[in-house]
């Protein structure tokens, strides 16, 4: 394949392997959870299914960030907002499924609206009783926000740290807005006490396994789509914009459109991740818009390795394993550990786990090659710019 | 003077930044197929002139016409690039994490929107064009090398190759031989003379040896306007040029 030149063949194999592993996990985990008896060593307990499912949602979010940050140099500090919007869209569907089983037994209005003495459903809650409608909104709401935001930001040629700051401001503004009861999204408490999804109880082990599979498959799909995007001529253009934006402009490209497309696709991916996350954790509240959440996503991606597709997935899983451990064992020290990790990675592993591994392999291969046939042209992997 | 036969026509162009007149009533006419060397001390307005031509900066006043009738002050960088003006920056600017070949692929003339790029497949015609340009800029051997690993001179050539890939009518080349060895400088002069057979070219350069190699009409800028214009011998014997630029 001609476009393959950018990717060493090894990288292609790695993507295929990642997708295969994710699909295998999508099948194996539910089987080991449901079919293997609880006493067996191979049994995967239900809490584990939920926990790993959550990690995979984070991994999809980190992958989405990597598409814009790793490949296009847009350091978004507000990707959590897209994740949360997707989550809210799913949460609204789940709220409508509760129906008359709520505390106030109102067949149409969710409990918090009855509590606030609202008489009828706000217009923006219409349609969310239908799964297909919610599924569209999961992608449309974050996608549209990213499109409008990106349209103005990229057209005005806001770049670098200024862009990062306004993405952060965006998620903070949404945080404040969603805290308000008048917004109609449950205010401080958010949306919770879900009962069913597509007619199946969200508490049931089988539903949880199905949600887990859906997450693993979505992540595999995300990997595939990202791989195809960055492997295309457009993907090369994305990297070109990252490395020398004025050059692309003077070649006749419009970097603002290049960025806008990636930013929108990325927001949609983040939205899907959020939608898968909410039924598995059972709640969505304005805390998901917290700027610190978005910054954590940046840390996962940096730890795993920017501009590698597998890196952000590894980063998200590894850092969150650490978080699960720390918040259990030494709850007071988690933030210090996270901050320390970011400093460590920035100073000593600027390419992240996967990027460093690749560079090491490259050096070894080059050394081996030089041994065999001295004085050949140097070939190195492309490196992400700052 | 008639605009119709010119590739570039600047008349009475001024542009100031915070009161400093970077370009002051500049008039410059380039005929179709002409190559022109622009010299002048630092701060003479050479780069600002290029910024105005390529749409990066708007002039405060004056006319800028391309190809006889296109008013460049009404277009932005991408539009102007698509209309056939290519620009090489002073500092070589190539896509460092791409191979030489991919740098050219991204520069090749063709649709510039997102979806064609997403579903692009390289045609034999494109492959042929890339081979041709690699031969012209003598980078065939480095085709698969990352641009970051090229020497400084090779980067300059790659950038010129990227301009050629755009197939522009007019090339603006800013200090192409800065930092080059003598052999590379001569090679670049040869390359530009070759390009000039089919393109109009403006070259900004300090290296008088190189300008002599080009053997074309010279314009000397000073304080944002034309100080002297003519053959190199004429310009370099001009008292005022000697005074402000060449030194005695």
Structural features, described:
The complex is a heterodimer of chains A (386) and B (248). By secondary structure, chain A is mostly helical. Chain A has a single domain (3-371), classed as ABC transporter involved in vitamin B12 uptake, BtuC. In chain A, 68% of the residues lie in helices and 2% in strands. Chain A has helices spanning 9-34, 46-69, 79-98, 111-115, 131-155, 160-179, 205-231, 233-250, 255-281, 291-304, 310-329, 334-348, 352-372, and strands at residues 191-192, 196-197, 200-201, 283-284. In chain A, the strands form two sheets. A two-stranded antiparallel ribbon of chain A has the order 1-4. In chain A, helix 2 runs parallel beside helix 7 (205-231), helix 7 (205-231) crosses helix 8 (233-250) and helix 10 packs across helix 12 (334-348). The longest helix of chain A is centred in the middle third of the chain and has 27 residues, at 205-231. Chain B is of the alpha/beta class. In chain B, 37% of the residues lie in helices and 25% in strands. Chain B has ten helices and ten strands. Chain B has helices at residues 46-53, 77-83, 100-107, 114-118, 124-136, 152-166, 182-196, 208-214, 232-237, 239-246; strands spanning 6-17, 20-31, 35-39, 61-66, 70-71, 85-88, 170-174, 200-204, 217-222, 225-230. A six-stranded mixed sheet of chain B has the order 6-7-8-3-9-10, sandwiched between helices. In chain B, strand 4 (61-66) and strand 5 form a beta hairpin. In chain B, helix 3 packs parallel to helix 6 (152-166), helix 5 (124-136) crosses helix 6 and helix 7 (182-196) runs parallel beside helix 8. Chain B is globular, with a radius of gyration of 18 Å. Chains A and B meet through helix 8 and helix 9 of A and helix 2, helix 3 and helix 4 of B.
């Amino acid at each position: 394949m001609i476009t393959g030149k950018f990717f060493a063949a090894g990288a292609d194999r790695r993507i295929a392997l990642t997708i295969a592993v994710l699909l295998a996990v999508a099948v194996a985990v539910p089987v080991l959870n449901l079919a293997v008896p609880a006493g067996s060593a191979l049994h995967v307990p239900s809490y584990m299914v939920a926990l790993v499912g959550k990690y995979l949602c984070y991994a999809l979010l980190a992958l989405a960030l990597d598409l814009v940050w790793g490949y296009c140099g847009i350091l978004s500090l507000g990707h959590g907002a897209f994740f949360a919007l997707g989550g809210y869209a799913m949460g609204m569907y789940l709220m409508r499924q509760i129906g008359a089983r709520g505390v106030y037994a109102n067949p149409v209005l969710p409990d918090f609206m009855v509590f606030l003495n609202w008489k009828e459903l706000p217009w923006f809650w219409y349609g969310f009783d239908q799964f297909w409608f919610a599924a569209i909104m999961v992608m449309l709401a974050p996608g549209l926000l990213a499109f409008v935001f990106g349209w103005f930001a990229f057209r005005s040629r806001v770049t670098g740290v200024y862009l990062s700051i306004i993405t952060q401001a965006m998620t903070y503004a949404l945080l404040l807005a969603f805290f308000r009861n008048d917004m109609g999204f449950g205010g401080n408490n958010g949306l919770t006490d879900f009962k069913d999804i597509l007619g199946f109880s969200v508490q049931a082990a089988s539903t949880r396994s199905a949600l887990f599979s859906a997450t693993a498959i979505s992540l595999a799909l995300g990997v595939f789509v990202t791989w195809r995007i960055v492997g295309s001529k457009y993907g090369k253009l994305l990297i070109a914009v990252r490395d020398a934006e004025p050059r692309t402009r003077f070649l006749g490209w419009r970097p603002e459109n290049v960025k806008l497309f990636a930013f929108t696709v990325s927001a949609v991916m983040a939205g899907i991740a959020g939608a898968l996350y909410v039924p598995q954790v059972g709640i969505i509240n304005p805390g998901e818009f917290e700027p610190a959440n978005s910054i954590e996503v940046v840390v996962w991606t940096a730890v795993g390795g920017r501009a590698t597709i597998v890196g952000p997935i590894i980063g998200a899983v590894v850092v969150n394993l650490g978080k699960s451990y720390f918040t259990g064992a030494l709850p007071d020290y988690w933030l210090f550990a996270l901050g320390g990790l970011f400093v460590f990675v920035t100073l000593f592993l600027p390419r992240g786990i996967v990027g460093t591994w690749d560079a090491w392999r490259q050096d070894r291969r080059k050394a081996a090659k030089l041994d065999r046939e001295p004085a050949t042209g140097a070939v190195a992997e492309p490196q992400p710019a700052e | 003077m008639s605009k119709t036969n010119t590739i570039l026509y600047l008349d009475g162009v001024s542009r100031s930044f915070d009161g400093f007149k970077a370009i002051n009533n500049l008039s410059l006419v380039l005929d179709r197929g002409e190559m022109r060397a622009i010299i002048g001390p630092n701060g003479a307005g050479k780069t600002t002139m290029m910024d105005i031509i390529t749409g990066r900066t708007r002039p405060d006043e004056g006319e800028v016409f391309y190809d006889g009738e296109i008013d460049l002050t009404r277009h932005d960088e991408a539009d102007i690039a698509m209309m056939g003006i290519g620009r090489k920056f002073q500092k070589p600017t190539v896509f460092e994490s791409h191979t030489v070949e991919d740098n050219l692929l991204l520069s090749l003339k063709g649709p510039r929107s997102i979806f064609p790029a997403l579903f692009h497949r390289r045609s034999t015609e494109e492959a042929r064009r890339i081979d041709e340009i690699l031969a012209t800029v003598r980078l065939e051997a480095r085709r698969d090398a990352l641009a970051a690993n090229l020497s400084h001179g090779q980067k300059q050539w790659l950038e010129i190759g990227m301009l050629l890939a755009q197939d522009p009518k007019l090339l603006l080349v800013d200090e192409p031989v800065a930092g080059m060895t003598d052999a590379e400088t001569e090679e670049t002069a040869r390359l530009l003379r070759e390009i000039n057979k089919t393109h109009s070219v403006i070259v900004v350069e300090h290296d008088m040896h190189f300008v002599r190699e080009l053997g074309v009409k010279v314009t000397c800028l000073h304080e944002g306007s034309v100080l002297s214009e003519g053959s190199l011998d004429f310009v370099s014997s001009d008292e005022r040029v000697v005074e402000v630029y060449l030194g005695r």
